[in-house]
Structures are given as structure tokens and as C-alpha cells.
Design goal:
- The structure is a single chain.
- The protein is an alpha+beta fold.
- The chain has a domain of 127 residues.
- 47% of the residues lie in helices and 22% in strands.
- The strands form 5 sheets. The protein has a 6-stranded mixed beta sheet with strand order 9-13-14-3-15-16, with helices on both faces.
- A hairpin with a 6-residue loop joins strand 11 and strand 12.
- Helix 2 packs across helix 7.
- The longest helix has 19 residues.
- The protein is globular, with a radius of gyration of 25 Å.
Amino acid sequence: MKFTIQNAGLIKNAELEFGDLTILCGKNNTGKTYITYNAFNYIDAIHYYLKVPMDNQYAEQLLEKGKISIPLEPFLSNINQYIESSMAPWIKNEMARQMAAHEDLYKNTKLSLHVEKKRQNAVMKYVHFNWNIPALKDCTINVIKEKEKKYLDVSLYNNAHELPNQDVITQVLTNSLIAVLKTAIPELFIITCERTGAAAFRTDFVVSRSVSSKQENVDQKIEELYQKMDFRGHPRPMNKDLEFVCRFDEAIQEKGYIAKKHPEILEYFASIVGGEYRLVEPNIVTFVPFGTNTGLTMLESSSSVRSLMELNFYLKHKSKYAQCLVIDEPELNLHPENQRKIARLLAMLVNADIYVAVTTHSDYIIRELNTLIMLNNAKSPRLKNIVKELGYDKKHLNCLLSPKKVKCYIAEDGTVKQMDINQKYGIEVTSFDESIREVNALQRRILYGE
């Protein structure tokens, strides 16, 4: 997929083609988080706002024959036009509000998402379901999409005394078709760089929401205070993040894709954080370090434990196959050793069929990803020995990366520049290299007078 953003805040014109792992680097105040939040908002909103025109002929044929096939290719080939037309009102009326920004900032903003042919074909090849949808009390529409099939099989089962309205059938068919098309666009889950604060103040948030919901006129009082302080709220990605943090008691009712299919990733994550998170009551999260039976609150735990809390609950309970996990600054509060381990964890997620997108300032993360790329498909005896010596060949540590899976960009001067990536040298991130060279030169000058 290719995301384009123009004339939004500091961003003049930026285009990112997403890979299995997408990395956005750059100096402070170059727009990394801004691009990430806008991309998240836009792509996530498509899942709610996508509309597809449906000809009434399909409803007429279904009422007449009782069974029809709807070809998918004509609709999938037009998915980019559907996205553009569906999202135009959202850009005009909703975008600024969902970024908690003044509408003037988005007056001339343009956003777009291009779904490439490869993803369109993947829908026809891999998507499958069998739905029974009620149209009337005793009338059901069965919609089937089989793998490798390029059409929907639709059957009408009617035991009612009347036929369903044609418009009702058209709506059912339209909704089914939209559900198929949306599988071409990954579902997103975001963990923002405000996560340490969300962990520290989680109890306050939960209690505040509970108390507020029981008070009279509380919404009016809050709105008056917000207006007085000219407060527009928080960007939607932050709100989504906070909503997740406040609802761990609901999240733990599910078992995530990683917990079901890749428990080795949970084991590796536990080795990074050095213990286990527990939700002992609906509103209390504790952390039990390995080798102890003592549960520490988030305030008693280290900043790294607070920083990784959300990732723990995501991996165990909310992760889904082919989902896109967005993490703003995964290195937050982590020692360089754990930054390298987080890089391996991200690679393991990519190899487990979860898309990952990150913003980062960490040279350690980039260098470790470089290592994983350069050691991938190692053929020479020297490289094979390195892989074995450092344990990268262990079966549970599936973290070596194909360069074809990775896209890396640097944000600068209101745009983004794509970095070269290859098997031999990995990712070329010039902004980190320049800073490292400056520090090394200064050290040599101090020590040796060079």
C-alpha cells in the first residue's frame, strides 16, 4: 500500500509505500509522529467509511433465481476510487477534529491510499467466509467466499410469507462486498509514545471515568472547562491508546493470534521485560519480576516496565493475523541491550505475519535490524558461524529478515526520503551515521588532538 499526505502541518508532500516492516526515522520536529498519526487516522477510518456502489440488478436476480454469483474483480479493481470518494467528506469534516487540530491547519490537506494489484489479488486468493444474514424474520441470505474464488456465491432462503424488500437485499449484498474489500486494507493497532504516562496514570483514568459517569451534568461541566482552556481534545490515536489501557479487563477475555500461534514470541518478550504482567483486579496491573513472588504496581516498577505494558497485553490478547501494529518510538525508556532485543522482537512479529510500522530515533534498533538483514540467507562459512555463534539460528528465534520485507524512510524538510536497503549492507540511515561520526571525531579531538 502507498500512503500520500500533502499540506498537513510541517508536512508538505510525503509518500510512503508500506512494507511488512516500515520504519520512519528523522530528527526531532520533522513530522514523524504527525505522519504516523495521520496515516493511522485515515487508514483506520476507511474501515468505517468505505462505500461501494451496488447495482440493483443483483438483488433483482437473487429474488428471481434464488441464487447468484457476484464477480469480485470489477469491484477490487476500483477500490482506490471507492476509497477516494468515500473519504473525501471525512477529510473535509472529520480529519482536523480527529487530530485535535484547528481546521485551518487542514484547509488544503490531501490524503490518499493506493492499494496495489498484489493485495487486490490476495483478497481473491486467500479470503474465505460463510455468512448467514437475516433479511426478514424467516428469510436468510447466505453469502459464501471460498479461497481461490473470484466471486461471491449468494443464496436466498425464504420461508416467510413475503419476499424481502429489494433495497434490503441490495444493502446486505453491499455490506458483504464492503467487508470483502476491506480485507485488502490491514486493520491497525497503535501504541503511542505517551504509553509510559498512560501506564503510570491508568488507575486515575479508570477511576475518573467511573466517577464522572455517575455524576450529574458532568459532561456539560467538562465541556465548559475545555472551552475555557481552548482545549480540543487529544488526537484520535492517543484516545485509542488510552481506551485500550483503560479496558484491559475486557481485553483479557480474548486470546490473541500471537498467544495462540506463536507462544515463543511471548517467551522472548518476557525475557526482555524480565518478568510477568498480571491484571489482579479490573483496575490493577502488577508486574512480577522473575525470581520473586512480589507484585509491583506500575508506579513501583521501572519506566521500561511501564513502557512495555501495552505491548504485553496486545501480544497476548489483541494481536490478529495480518494486522498492522504501529509503535511510536519502541526504544522508549529501554537500555541499548533491550533496544536490540526489541528489534529482534519486531522482526519475529513480521515473520509471524503481522505488519509492523515504527518511528524511531534509535541507532541500536536500526543497527540490529541491519544485522538481521545481513545475516539472512547467510551462505559463506564466516557468516554461518556468526549466525550460529550469536544464536540467530535457534528455531524459536525466527528473527532474520529479508530486505524485501523492509521499507525505511527519513523525514526531513517537510517530506520523506526512502533509504536504500540491500542484503549486504542492510539499511542506510545517513542521519544516524552523521551524528555518530561527529561524536567520534570530537572524542578523537579531545583525546588525541586530531
